[in-house]
UniProtKB/TrEMBL annotation, chains A, B:
Pfam families: PALP
Keyword Lyase belongs to the record: yes
Entry keywords, A to Z: Lyase, Pyridoxal phosphate
Named cofactor requirement(s): pyridoxal 5'-phosphate
Entry superkingdom: Bacteria
Protein name, as recorded: Threonine synthase
Enzyme class: lyase
Lyase keyword on record: yes
Enzyme Commission no: 4.2.3.1
Classification lineage: Bacteria, Bacillati, Actinomycetota, Actinomycetes, Propionibacteriales
Organism of provenance: Microlunatus spumicola
Amino acid sequence: MTAVLDTQVLPPVGVRAGAFGNATHLACRACGAQSPLGPFYACMECFGPLEVGYDFPRVTRAQIEAGPKSIWRYAPLLPVPADIATFRSTDPGFTRLVDAGNLAADLGLRKLHVKDDSGNPTHSFKDRVVAVALSAARELGLNVLACPSTGNLANAVAAAAARAGIRSVVLVPSNLEQQKIIASAVYDTTLIAIEGNYDDVNKLASEIAGEEEGWAFVNVNVRPYYAEGSKTLAYEIAEQLGWRLPDQLVIPVASGSQLTKIDKGFSELIKLGLVEDKPVRIFGAQATGCSPIVQAYEAGQDVVAPVRPNTIAKSLAIGNPADGPYVLDVVRRTGGRIADVDDETVVRNILRLARTEGIFGETAGGVTVGVTAKLIADGDLDPDGETVIINSGDGLKTLDAVAGHVGPKTTIPPRYEAFTDFWKGYTA
Amino acid sequence: MTAVLDTQVLPPVGVRAGAFGNATHLACRACGAQSPLGPFYACMECFGPLEVGYDFPRVTRAQIEAGPKSIWRYAPLLPVPADIATFRSTDPGFTRLVDAGNLAADLGLRKLHVKDDSGNPTHSFKDRVVAVALSAARELGLNVLACPSTGNLANAVAAAAARAGIRSVVLVPSNLEQQKIIASAVYDTTLIAIEGNYDDVNKLASEIAGEEEGWAFVNVNVRPYYAEGSKTLAYEIAEQLGWRLPDQLVIPVASGSQLTKIDKGFSELIKLGLVEDKPVRIFGAQATGCSPIVQAYEAGQDVVAPVRPNTIAKSLAIGNPADGPYVLDVVRRTGGRIADVDDETVVRNILRLARTEGIFGETAGGVTVGVTAKLIADGDLDPDGETVIINSGDGLKTLDAVAGHVGPKTTIPPRYEAFTDFWKGYTA
């Protein structure tokens, strides 16, 4: 409604026209007050979280299909300029939607697809959100791309900044595993080790974001733009299904942003007439060792009490999830649910996904497959409904989770007789 | 020439019509004698290596562009059935061709693209060749997919077999790093550790391939089909350039098969009228610690003397490269060259690719970028020519190579003043 707009909603001085495409303003998710498109992330009225609002033109399937094979094919639906594909980014997205017949049979589902985001440039869905945050940073004249992280986000920020030719700073706990440090430091990011845990790192990041000029902490001060990147998962799923919506989805939940943005993406496609309107039931998946939203869901509450994470699913280990209340709203409104599985089940389901579909997901993938099985057993997921699950990251980054659970079937000397002796017994 | 066909060239009994698409026979690369399409890999006349021959129909750009976003869009040009996309495979290929402006500037090239095959399902180009081998195995009624390997190939075979629902067996040296064992074993392959080095493993694989019925060792008895998968790199590069050929390519060389098949792929596109005929100079890249083809090239010889590999670029460490003579032929015929760089240069160039383009390649990528720089310095590569280099695998699989070379810029307590103290000095 234009009536509620006031002069604040003009973009900051120096930002070019069309910098944010068809986005028109930021709106508070709590009180609805509008703010201008800028480096803002908290409502000026009530300090609530901000979300990007749009005035979409007509967008056609053909127009999208003629676009680049990356998230930029959906540029008209994102807070990015129309010429976004001419800037250097990692061009993430348009990952495989795998028709997962083997896993479907194993789980007892009629039709299942795995949206495999391990195919992104740094092998997690974070490349999507970082690419949109990078565009916002560029358009706002911010010249340092930064984040607090323990893994996927750090990889994505460091790689995107390298490709864009801008400076990046990644803050990590100093006790982070050496291999995770290498996988970000290789991009020549300014990696700063902080003597403390992830909460300490996060707090310091917010302080720097508040004090320093010109910094874009992707998940702090440009978070409203960043979060919009997850909508592309919804767009791709619909397009890859032949411009149809599935019946039900199971989505891993950390902050909860991905789940709420997939719901938002589907709504936008319906409003734009790009897909037929139909109910889509949305389910969330957490690890038992960090399941604050599940606890709120089961207690019938609207607010989420923070927990101290203790799970091998590190990429989902956010004890105080920013989008918790919105996740509760989406799963309740769509007839879904949010559920959890323990770490042993996570490992078993990483292996199940690999064994059935040849997809080696990270721990979050194990959480999602495990919760899918639980939802079927509990009668919550319809076995005849067309189902999509998200694999948000890559098993190569969480090898420790499965070490000790898999290995050689035998060790033999390099002689044919040794082989045949083993093989006869093995296949008997 | 139909005249040289004899009755042997009929396919084996039980193989369905069209099992190998437009492929018509196997031809010896040494003496030219023809063999039927079957599980054959050595010429019955002279024991030379066999290659797939075709009788292509008319194939159009539009037909290809309407196909799946995987190597199967090129099905009419591969030894696979027309309905290949209906079978379960990992659907590899159609990876990014990155317009690498930053790296181009750093190297002093006018126009450079990186074909980034780390985007494949198991993050190396091996997914391409294994997918074609899997099709051949299925059509020939072979029911075990197998390989000797120390890394990428094992991942690709185990994942492809899992997805296809057939048994796989992977033979590895028993002293292989635990993380490489995990990354294959996770797919529930029958991983057999062999007490010996890679040569011992390879020898045992050949013995099993010769003795056991029903086994498809992808790089042994179905090698002619397997090798054809690399042609898809050429097809994709041409299509992604807008149906044009580049002026020059730099390609990593292990067995040499990829390089020779890219050359073959370009020739086919020209013959089919899908691209304009023009000279393409092809360059090969090896690590100094395993550079038998470079040694032959520099000595002006046509045969390649085996070496004992000693390099961190394990995925290129084949001391007795099967396609050595054919690589020499291609680089000489096209006005290219094959060159090598030492391990220290490999590490520096892994970091160069990551720093400039946000692409974390494995050691083979470092070899290729390093050799590219060397070829420019030596005046062999034209700085004004449009250049493509291949990144064949993923840095997450060779973290050890860069460990000790990158890390945090500092370690500080979680306080804002500690940060500003560091930052002032760092940016001064």
